[in-house]
């Protein structure tokens, strides 16, 4: 991005600063040096910036503080957008909005089920930045409602432990009974507590928590090789 074609947002913190090792991991999901917490703050910001086709720059010095810059590309034709002329029903680059909508509908659609709002939003940003269309639900019950409403769900990505009457394993059973063609990816931070597979049971595709963006995308691409977008 050329300097004249970008919007920069800068946030400075005159706190402890970060060592080079901590700074390298600063945007890693679930990484934190602050004791109790999710460690998702900068990871979510990074995902949002990526999804917006921007860049996140971090400068930090121990004992001096940290500066975070979010750089976003400016859309072409912003002046014209305020004073629309002929062809105002089209995008600034001449594309038909209907064609853009059709392209969006053709993207693989993933249903993310996660009760923790921060983790859910992080998964949404990771998948959205990679070009997938994402719908989400905070519970298994809501996920089943969405599956009834959304005919074109290509993958279910669900946490195991969730509050309420239905956990992720029970949700997977329901989805397999109703829509056996829909692939399922399970995620959990308690791998040792998953039930042992039985000869009759269909094997589970499981991604352990915490996971990185490249790990999640690698598993999704393996499950949806014919629908990979990037």
How would you characterize the overall build of this protein?
- This protein is of the alpha/beta class and 230 residues long.
- It folds into two domains: 3-73, Histidine kinase-like ATPase, C-terminal domain (Heat Shock Protein 90), CATH 3.30.565.10; 99-227, 3-Layer(aba) Sandwich (Rossmann fold).
- The protein is 33% helix and 20% strand.
- The chain has a five-stranded parallel β-sheet, sandwiched between helices.
- A hairpin with a 3-residue loop joins strand 2 and strand 3 (65-73).
- Residues 78-93 have low confidence and may be disordered.
CATH-derived topology of the largest domain:
Rossmann fold
Structural class category: alpha/beta
| DSSP strand content | 15-25%
Mean pLDDT: 77
Q: Span from first to last CA?
A: 21 Å
Question: How many DSSP helices?
Answer: 8
- Largest sheet data: 5 strands, parallel
DSSP helix fraction: 25-40%
The CATH homologous superfamily name of the largest domain equals: Response regulator
The CATH class of the largest domain, by name, is: Alpha Beta
Brief write-up:
This protein has 230 residues and is an alpha/beta fold. It has helices spanning 20-24, 41-51, 78-82, 97-105, 117-129, 140-149, 168-178, 213-223, and strands at 6-13, 55-61, 65-73, 109-113, 133-137, 155-159, 184-188, 206-208. It folds into two domains: 3-73, Histidine kinase-like ATPase, C-terminal domain (Heat Shock Protein 90), CATH 3.30.565.10; 99-227, Response regulator (Rossmann fold).
Distinctive features:
230 residues; alpha/beta; Rossmann fold; five-stranded parallel beta sheet; 20% strand; 33% helix; three-stranded antiparallel beta sheet; globular; Heat Shock Protein 90
């Amino acid at each position: 991005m050329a300097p004249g074609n970008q919007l920069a947002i800068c946030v400075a913190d005159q706190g402890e600063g970060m060592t080079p090792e901590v700074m390298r991991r600063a945007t890693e999901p679930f990484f934190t040096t602050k004791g109790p917490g999710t460690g998702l703050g900068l990871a979510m910001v990074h995902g949002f910036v990526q999804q917006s086709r921007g860049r996140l720059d971090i400068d930090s010095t121990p004992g001096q503080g940290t500066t975070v810059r979010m750089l976003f590309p400016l859309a072409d034709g912003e002046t014209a957008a305020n004073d629309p002329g002929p062809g105002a029903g089209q995008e600034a680059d001449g594309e038909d909005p209907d064609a853009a909508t059709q392209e969006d509908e053709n993207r693989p659609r993933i249903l993310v089920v996660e009760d923790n709002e921060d983790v859910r939003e992080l998964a949404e940003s990771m998948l959205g930045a990679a070009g997938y269309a994402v719908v989400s639900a905070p519970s298994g019950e809501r996920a089943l409602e969405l599956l009834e409403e959304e005919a074109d769900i290509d993958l279910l990505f669900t946490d195991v432990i969730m509050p309420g009457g239905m956990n992720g394993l029970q949700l997977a059973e329901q989805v397999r009974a109703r829509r056996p063609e829909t692939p399922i990816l399970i995620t959990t931070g308690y791998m040792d507590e998953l039930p042992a597979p039985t000869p009759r049971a269909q094997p589970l595709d499981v991604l352990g928590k915490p996971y990185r963006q490249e790990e999640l995308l690698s598993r999704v691409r393996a499950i949806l090789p014919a629908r990979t977008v990037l």
